[in-house]
Amino acid sequence: MQLPASSRPDQNWLRAFMFTIFGTTALVISYFPLYYKEIGFSSAQIGYLYAVGPLISMFSNMIWSYTSDKYRTIKRIMNILIIGQLVTMLVLWQVSSFGVVLITISLFYFFYYPVYPLADTMAIQTAQRYGRSFTVIRVFGSLGYAFFALAIGYAVGAAGASATLAIGIGIGVFTLLCSFLLRDGVATKSEPVELSALLKILRSKEILWFFGCSFCLAIAHRMNEAFLTLTLSGLGAGEGLIGWSLMISAASEIPIFFLLSKYGDKMKELPLLGFASLMFALRFLLMSLASDPLSVLAVQSLHSITFGVFYVTAVRYITRIIPWQYRATGMALFIIFWSSASGLLSGAFGGLLFEAAGRTAFYLLAAFLAFVAFVGFLYRHLFAKPEDMNISGISA
Protein backbone atom coordinates (compact mmCIF):
# COMPACT_ATOMS: atom_id res chain seq x y z
CA MET A 1 0.00 0.00 0.00
CA GLN A 2 1.45 3.36 -1.05
CA LEU A 3 1.82 6.16 1.47
CA PRO A 4 0.00 9.47 0.92
CA ALA A 5 2.10 12.31 -0.44
CA SER A 6 2.06 14.11 2.92
CA SER A 7 3.80 11.18 4.62
CA ARG A 8 6.70 10.90 2.19
CA PRO A 9 8.67 14.15 2.52
CA ASP A 10 11.84 12.38 1.38
CA GLN A 11 10.33 12.03 -2.11
CA ASN A 12 9.35 15.71 -2.16
CA TRP A 13 12.79 16.88 -1.06
CA LEU A 14 14.37 14.64 -3.70
CA ARG A 15 12.16 16.28 -6.31
CA ALA A 16 13.32 19.71 -5.10
CA PHE A 17 16.93 18.52 -5.21
CA MET A 18 16.48 17.24 -8.78
CA PHE A 19 14.93 20.57 -9.73
CA THR A 20 17.90 22.57 -8.48
CA ILE A 21 20.79 20.35 -9.62
CA PHE A 22 19.49 20.53 -13.16
CA GLY A 23 19.45 24.30 -12.78
CA THR A 24 23.20 23.99 -12.27
CA THR A 25 23.31 21.78 -15.38
CA ALA A 26 21.60 24.48 -17.46
CA LEU A 27 24.13 26.99 -16.20
CA VAL A 28 27.24 24.86 -16.73
CA ILE A 29 26.34 23.43 -20.12
CA SER A 30 24.72 26.44 -21.73
CA TYR A 31 26.02 29.59 -20.05
CA PHE A 32 29.57 28.74 -19.03
CA PRO A 33 30.58 28.88 -22.75
CA LEU A 34 29.15 32.41 -22.96
CA TYR A 35 31.03 33.35 -19.77
CA TYR A 36 34.26 32.03 -21.26
CA LYS A 37 33.59 34.03 -24.40
CA GLU A 38 32.94 37.12 -22.27
CA ILE A 39 36.38 36.89 -20.62
CA GLY A 40 38.09 36.54 -23.99
CA PHE A 41 38.58 32.82 -24.70
CA SER A 42 38.51 31.46 -28.27
CA SER A 43 36.22 28.66 -29.51
CA ALA A 44 39.13 26.21 -29.35
CA GLN A 45 39.91 27.22 -25.75
CA ILE A 46 36.23 26.89 -24.85
CA GLY A 47 36.31 23.40 -26.35
CA TYR A 48 39.30 22.47 -24.18
CA LEU A 49 37.56 23.80 -21.06
CA TYR A 50 34.50 21.76 -21.96
CA ALA A 51 36.63 18.66 -22.59
CA VAL A 52 38.56 18.73 -19.31
CA GLY A 53 35.38 18.08 -17.31
CA PRO A 54 34.60 14.78 -18.99
CA LEU A 55 38.27 13.79 -18.63
CA ILE A 56 38.15 14.41 -14.88
CA SER A 57 34.74 12.78 -14.52
CA MET A 58 35.94 9.50 -16.03
CA PHE A 59 37.75 9.01 -12.72
CA SER A 60 35.58 11.00 -10.31
CA ASN A 61 32.35 9.22 -11.30
CA MET A 62 33.84 5.84 -10.52
CA ILE A 63 35.59 6.99 -7.33
CA TRP A 64 32.49 8.55 -5.76
CA SER A 65 29.95 5.98 -7.01
CA TYR A 66 32.07 3.00 -5.97
CA THR A 67 32.53 4.66 -2.56
CA SER A 68 28.76 5.11 -2.35
CA ASP A 69 28.14 1.42 -3.12
CA LYS A 70 30.87 0.28 -0.72
CA TYR A 71 29.75 2.36 2.26
CA ARG A 72 26.05 2.30 1.36
CA THR A 73 25.44 6.03 1.50
CA ILE A 74 24.38 8.40 -1.24
CA LYS A 75 23.28 11.41 0.80
CA ARG A 76 26.60 12.03 2.54
CA ILE A 77 28.53 11.72 -0.71
CA MET A 78 26.23 14.25 -2.39
CA ASN A 79 26.61 16.65 0.56
CA ILE A 80 30.37 16.61 0.00
CA LEU A 81 30.01 17.04 -3.76
CA ILE A 82 27.71 20.07 -3.54
CA ILE A 83 30.02 21.76 -1.01
CA GLY A 84 32.94 21.11 -3.37
CA GLN A 85 31.04 22.71 -6.25
CA LEU A 86 30.32 25.83 -4.22
CA VAL A 87 33.92 26.29 -3.10
CA THR A 88 35.34 25.88 -6.61
CA MET A 89 32.75 28.25 -8.13
CA LEU A 90 33.78 30.89 -5.58
CA VAL A 91 37.40 30.46 -6.67
CA LEU A 92 36.48 30.46 -10.38
CA TRP A 93 34.66 33.76 -9.89
CA GLN A 94 37.97 35.40 -8.90
CA VAL A 95 40.21 34.21 -11.76
CA SER A 96 40.39 34.96 -15.49
CA SER A 97 43.65 33.62 -16.97
CA PHE A 98 43.20 30.51 -19.09
CA GLY A 99 45.66 28.34 -17.14
CA VAL A 100 44.15 29.12 -13.74
CA VAL A 101 40.59 28.75 -15.07
CA LEU A 102 41.55 25.35 -16.53
CA ILE A 103 42.87 24.11 -13.16
CA THR A 104 39.91 25.50 -11.21
CA ILE A 105 37.26 24.17 -13.57
CA SER A 106 38.96 20.77 -13.39
CA LEU A 107 38.42 20.76 -9.63
CA PHE A 108 34.84 21.91 -10.11
CA TYR A 109 34.11 19.04 -12.49
CA PHE A 110 35.56 16.55 -9.99
CA PHE A 111 32.61 17.44 -7.74
CA TYR A 112 30.05 18.25 -10.45
CA TYR A 113 29.67 15.14 -12.59
CA PRO A 114 29.25 12.41 -9.91
CA VAL A 115 26.12 14.08 -8.50
CA TYR A 116 23.97 12.94 -11.43
CA PRO A 117 24.41 9.15 -11.40
CA LEU A 118 24.07 9.23 -7.61
CA ALA A 119 20.89 11.34 -7.82
CA ASP A 120 19.44 8.96 -10.42
CA THR A 121 20.31 5.99 -8.21
CA MET A 122 18.58 7.64 -5.24
CA ALA A 123 15.57 8.41 -7.46
CA ILE A 124 15.38 4.75 -8.54
CA GLN A 125 15.53 3.59 -4.90
CA THR A 126 12.94 6.13 -3.76
CA ALA A 127 10.58 5.28 -6.60
CA GLN A 128 10.85 1.57 -5.78
CA ARG A 129 10.22 2.31 -2.10
CA TYR A 130 6.85 3.89 -2.95
CA GLY A 131 5.96 1.69 -5.91
CA ARG A 132 6.33 4.56 -8.35
CA SER A 133 8.13 5.05 -11.65
CA PHE A 134 11.61 6.59 -11.71
CA THR A 135 10.38 9.13 -14.24
CA VAL A 136 7.89 10.77 -11.84
CA ILE A 137 10.92 11.97 -9.85
CA ARG A 138 13.35 12.49 -12.74
CA VAL A 139 10.83 14.72 -14.53
CA PHE A 140 11.53 17.41 -11.92
CA GLY A 141 15.05 17.61 -13.32
CA SER A 142 13.56 18.53 -16.69
CA LEU A 143 11.28 21.09 -15.03
CA GLY A 144 14.28 22.58 -13.24
CA TYR A 145 16.36 22.69 -16.40
CA ALA A 146 13.52 24.35 -18.32
CA PHE A 147 12.87 26.92 -15.60
CA PHE A 148 16.50 27.83 -14.97
CA ALA A 149 17.47 27.82 -18.66
CA LEU A 150 14.90 30.54 -19.31
CA ALA A 151 15.41 32.45 -16.05
CA ILE A 152 19.20 32.43 -16.31
CA GLY A 153 18.94 33.57 -19.93
CA TYR A 154 17.05 36.68 -18.93
CA ALA A 155 19.24 37.25 -15.87
CA VAL A 156 22.41 37.02 -17.96
CA GLY A 157 20.81 39.24 -20.61
CA ALA A 158 20.12 41.90 -17.97
CA ALA A 159 23.30 41.62 -15.88
CA GLY A 160 25.77 40.34 -18.48
CA ALA A 161 27.63 37.05 -18.80
CA SER A 162 29.93 38.16 -15.98
CA ALA A 163 27.08 37.38 -13.54
CA THR A 164 27.06 33.68 -14.50
CA LEU A 165 29.07 32.44 -11.53
CA ALA A 166 27.15 34.55 -9.02
CA ILE A 167 23.95 32.92 -10.28
CA GLY A 168 25.58 29.49 -10.01
CA ILE A 169 26.57 30.09 -6.40
CA GLY A 170 23.02 31.12 -5.55
CA ILE A 171 21.61 27.93 -7.09
CA GLY A 172 24.30 25.88 -5.35
CA VAL A 173 23.41 27.22 -1.89
CA PHE A 174 19.78 26.17 -2.29
CA THR A 175 20.85 22.78 -3.69
CA LEU A 176 23.04 22.21 -0.62
CA LEU A 177 20.13 22.94 1.72
CA CYS A 178 17.99 20.41 -0.15
CA SER A 179 20.77 17.81 -0.01
CA PHE A 180 20.84 17.93 3.80
CA LEU A 181 17.11 17.11 3.89
CA LEU A 182 17.29 14.02 1.66
CA ARG A 183 16.69 10.51 2.96
CA ASP A 184 19.71 8.31 2.38
CA GLY A 185 19.71 5.18 0.21
CA VAL A 186 18.13 2.04 1.60
CA ALA A 187 20.54 0.01 3.74
CA THR A 188 20.48 -3.65 2.73
CA LYS A 189 22.10 -6.95 3.63
CA SER A 190 23.40 -7.44 0.12
CA GLU A 191 26.47 -9.31 -0.96
CA PRO A 192 29.70 -7.32 -0.59
CA VAL A 193 30.66 -5.09 -3.49
CA GLU A 194 33.65 -6.75 -5.14
CA LEU A 195 35.82 -5.36 -7.90
CA SER A 196 36.23 -8.81 -9.51
CA ALA A 197 32.47 -9.21 -9.89
CA LEU A 198 32.20 -5.72 -11.34
CA LEU A 199 34.87 -6.54 -13.93
CA LYS A 200 32.99 -9.71 -14.83
CA ILE A 201 29.88 -7.63 -15.51
CA LEU A 202 31.84 -5.24 -17.71
CA ARG A 203 33.09 -8.09 -19.92
CA SER A 204 29.59 -9.22 -20.88
CA LYS A 205 28.58 -8.73 -24.51
CA GLU A 206 25.33 -7.07 -23.52
CA ILE A 207 27.08 -4.33 -21.55
CA LEU A 208 29.82 -3.81 -24.15
CA TRP A 209 27.35 -3.53 -27.01
CA PHE A 210 25.09 -1.13 -25.11
CA PHE A 211 27.95 1.14 -24.05
CA GLY A 212 29.49 1.08 -27.54
CA CYS A 213 26.28 2.22 -29.25
CA SER A 214 25.59 4.75 -26.48
CA PHE A 215 29.09 6.15 -26.89
CA CYS A 216 28.60 6.87 -30.63
CA LEU A 217 25.30 8.61 -29.89
CA ALA A 218 26.76 10.46 -26.91
CA ILE A 219 29.55 12.04 -28.98
CA ALA A 220 26.93 13.47 -31.33
CA HIS A 221 24.74 14.65 -28.44
CA ARG A 222 27.64 16.32 -26.62
CA MET A 223 28.82 18.05 -29.79
CA ASN A 224 25.44 19.73 -30.05
CA GLU A 225 25.27 20.43 -26.33
CA ALA A 226 28.68 22.09 -26.19
CA PHE A 227 28.17 24.37 -29.17
CA LEU A 228 24.42 25.02 -29.26
CA THR A 229 24.64 28.37 -27.49
CA LEU A 230 27.57 29.45 -29.68
CA THR A 231 25.58 28.37 -32.76
CA LEU A 232 22.63 30.47 -31.66
CA SER A 233 24.88 33.39 -30.79
CA GLY A 234 26.52 33.15 -34.23
CA LEU A 235 23.09 33.27 -35.88
CA GLY A 236 22.31 36.48 -34.01
CA ALA A 237 20.26 35.20 -31.06
CA GLY A 238 20.35 37.12 -27.79
CA GLU A 239 20.56 35.58 -24.31
CA GLY A 240 16.77 35.65 -23.92
CA LEU A 241 16.24 33.64 -27.12
CA ILE A 242 18.98 31.22 -26.07
CA GLY A 243 17.10 30.71 -22.81
CA TRP A 244 13.89 29.98 -24.72
CA SER A 245 15.72 27.44 -26.87
CA LEU A 246 16.97 25.57 -23.81
CA MET A 247 13.59 25.82 -22.11
CA ILE A 248 11.80 24.37 -25.15
CA SER A 249 14.13 21.37 -25.28
CA ALA A 250 13.83 20.63 -21.55
CA ALA A 251 10.06 21.18 -21.38
CA SER A 252 9.54 18.89 -24.35
CA GLU A 253 10.92 15.99 -22.27
CA ILE A 254 8.12 16.21 -19.71
CA PRO A 255 5.20 14.65 -21.65
CA ILE A 256 7.54 11.95 -22.97
CA PHE A 257 8.64 11.11 -19.42
CA PHE A 258 5.02 10.71 -18.32
CA LEU A 259 4.13 8.62 -21.37
CA LEU A 260 7.11 6.33 -20.81
CA SER A 261 6.32 6.00 -17.10
CA LYS A 262 2.85 4.74 -18.08
CA TYR A 263 3.53 2.73 -21.23
CA GLY A 264 7.31 2.31 -21.46
CA ASP A 265 7.40 -1.04 -19.65
CA LYS A 266 5.22 -2.51 -22.40
CA MET A 267 7.89 -1.83 -25.06
CA LYS A 268 11.28 -3.46 -25.51
CA GLU A 269 14.27 -1.28 -24.73
CA LEU A 270 16.51 -1.88 -27.75
CA PRO A 271 13.93 -0.84 -30.40
CA LEU A 272 13.21 2.31 -28.36
CA LEU A 273 16.92 3.10 -28.11
CA GLY A 274 17.25 2.59 -31.87
CA PHE A 275 14.27 4.88 -32.54
CA ALA A 276 15.75 7.61 -30.34
CA SER A 277 19.10 7.33 -32.16
CA LEU A 278 17.42 7.68 -35.56
CA MET A 279 15.57 10.77 -34.36
CA PHE A 280 18.87 12.18 -33.08
CA ALA A 281 20.30 11.75 -36.59
CA LEU A 282 17.33 13.63 -38.07
CA ARG A 283 17.65 16.36 -35.44
CA PHE A 284 21.33 17.00 -36.21
CA LEU A 285 20.70 16.89 -39.96
CA LEU A 286 18.11 19.64 -39.52
CA MET A 287 20.57 21.59 -37.34
CA SER A 288 23.09 21.51 -40.20
CA LEU A 289 20.43 23.10 -42.45
CA ALA A 290 19.14 25.72 -39.99
CA SER A 291 19.87 29.26 -41.11
CA ASP A 292 18.29 31.41 -38.38
CA PRO A 293 17.61 31.22 -34.62
CA LEU A 294 13.89 30.44 -35.04
CA SER A 295 14.74 27.35 -37.11
CA VAL A 296 17.00 26.16 -34.30
CA LEU A 297 14.17 26.70 -31.81
CA ALA A 298 11.90 24.50 -33.92
CA VAL A 299 14.54 21.76 -34.12
CA GLN A 300 14.96 21.88 -30.34
CA SER A 301 11.43 20.50 -29.91
CA LEU A 302 12.82 17.16 -31.16
CA HIS A 303 14.65 16.88 -27.84
CA SER A 304 11.56 15.09 -26.51
CA ILE A 305 11.78 12.10 -28.84
CA THR A 306 15.59 12.04 -28.84
CA PHE A 307 17.07 12.59 -25.39
CA GLY A 308 13.77 12.06 -23.55
CA VAL A 309 13.16 8.62 -25.04
CA PHE A 310 16.80 7.57 -24.96
CA TYR A 311 17.64 8.53 -21.37
CA VAL A 312 14.60 7.03 -19.66
CA THR A 313 14.90 3.84 -21.71
CA ALA A 314 18.65 3.57 -21.06
CA VAL A 315 18.14 3.90 -17.29
CA ARG A 316 15.45 1.19 -17.40
CA TYR A 317 17.77 -1.02 -19.42
CA ILE A 318 20.64 -0.55 -16.94
CA THR A 319 18.46 -1.34 -13.94
CA ARG A 320 17.38 -4.56 -15.66
CA ILE A 321 20.77 -5.89 -16.76
CA ILE A 322 23.04 -4.77 -13.88
CA PRO A 323 22.76 -6.44 -10.43
CA TRP A 324 21.19 -4.08 -7.90
CA GLN A 325 24.15 -4.07 -5.49
CA TYR A 326 26.23 -2.47 -8.28
CA ARG A 327 23.57 0.01 -9.37
CA ALA A 328 25.35 3.25 -8.42
CA THR A 329 28.51 2.00 -10.09
CA GLY A 330 26.50 0.91 -13.14
CA MET A 331 24.94 4.34 -13.45
CA ALA A 332 28.39 5.89 -13.09
CA LEU A 333 29.67 3.73 -15.95
CA PHE A 334 26.78 4.85 -18.11
CA ILE A 335 27.51 8.49 -17.31
CA ILE A 336 31.19 7.93 -18.17
CA PHE A 337 30.23 6.76 -21.65
CA TRP A 338 27.25 9.09 -22.11
CA SER A 339 28.85 12.22 -20.71
CA SER A 340 32.52 11.90 -19.79
CA ALA A 341 34.39 10.09 -22.56
CA SER A 342 32.07 11.49 -25.23
CA GLY A 343 32.35 15.00 -23.80
CA LEU A 344 36.13 14.71 -23.83
CA LEU A 345 36.20 13.90 -27.56
CA SER A 346 33.48 16.34 -28.56
CA GLY A 347 35.04 19.17 -26.55
CA ALA A 348 38.65 18.57 -27.60
CA PHE A 349 37.99 18.05 -31.30
CA GLY A 350 34.56 19.63 -31.68
CA GLY A 351 35.90 23.13 -31.13
CA LEU A 352 38.61 22.62 -33.72
CA LEU A 353 36.12 21.15 -36.22
CA PHE A 354 33.60 23.93 -35.54
CA GLU A 355 36.25 26.57 -36.24
CA ALA A 356 37.91 24.86 -39.22
CA ALA A 357 35.00 23.27 -41.10
CA GLY A 358 32.02 25.31 -39.96
CA ARG A 359 28.64 24.54 -38.42
CA THR A 360 27.24 22.51 -41.34
CA ALA A 361 30.05 19.93 -41.40
CA PHE A 362 30.02 19.85 -37.60
CA TYR A 363 26.37 18.82 -37.44
CA LEU A 364 26.58 16.44 -40.41
CA LEU A 365 29.23 14.49 -38.50
CA ALA A 366 26.95 14.43 -35.45
CA ALA A 367 24.09 13.10 -37.61
CA PHE A 368 26.32 10.34 -39.01
CA LEU A 369 27.40 9.21 -35.51
CA ALA A 370 23.78 9.09 -34.35
CA PHE A 371 22.88 6.97 -37.38
CA VAL A 372 25.72 4.55 -36.54
CA ALA A 373 24.18 4.16 -33.05
CA PHE A 374 20.78 3.46 -34.64
CA VAL A 375 22.26 0.69 -36.78
CA GLY A 376 24.03 -0.79 -33.73
CA PHE A 377 20.93 -0.91 -31.52
CA LEU A 378 18.81 -2.29 -34.36
CA TYR A 379 21.36 -5.01 -35.15
CA ARG A 380 21.56 -5.98 -31.48
CA HIS A 381 17.78 -6.24 -31.24
CA LEU A 382 17.46 -8.37 -34.39
CA PHE A 383 20.47 -10.66 -34.15
CA ALA A 384 21.56 -11.03 -30.50
CA LYS A 385 21.68 -14.61 -29.25
CA PRO A 386 19.76 -15.44 -26.05
CA GLU A 387 22.94 -16.51 -24.24
CA ASP A 388 24.50 -13.10 -24.96
CA MET A 389 21.70 -11.37 -23.05
CA ASN A 390 22.88 -12.87 -19.73
CA ILE A 391 25.27 -10.75 -17.67
CA SER A 392 27.94 -13.43 -17.21
CA GLY A 393 25.84 -15.51 -14.87
CA ILE A 394 25.54 -12.80 -12.22
CA SER A 395 21.97 -12.57 -11.08
CA ALA A 396 20.30 -9.36 -10.09
TrEMBL record:
Q: What is its main location?
A: membrane
Question: Mind telling me what this protein is named?
Answer: MFS transporter
**Keyword Transmembrane helix carried by entry:** yes
Domain Major facilitator superfamily (MFS) profile: where?
A: 156-396
Gene Ontology CC entries for this record = plasma membrane
Q: Which GO terms describe its molecular function?
A: lactose binding; lactose:proton symporter activity
- TM ranges: 12-34, 46-64, 76-93, 99-116, 136-157, 163-182, 202-221, 241-260, 272-291, 297-319, 331-354, 360-379
As for membrane topology, the entry says: Multi-pass membrane protein
Keywords attached to this entry:
Cell inner membrane, Cell membrane, Membrane, Transmembrane, Transmembrane helix, Transport
Q: Which organism is it from?
A: Paenibacillus glucanolyticus
A Pfam family cross-referenced in the UniProt record is MFS_1_like
Record carries keyword Transmembrane helix? yes
Please state where this protein is localized.
Cell inner membrane
Superkingdom, according to UniProt?
Bacteria
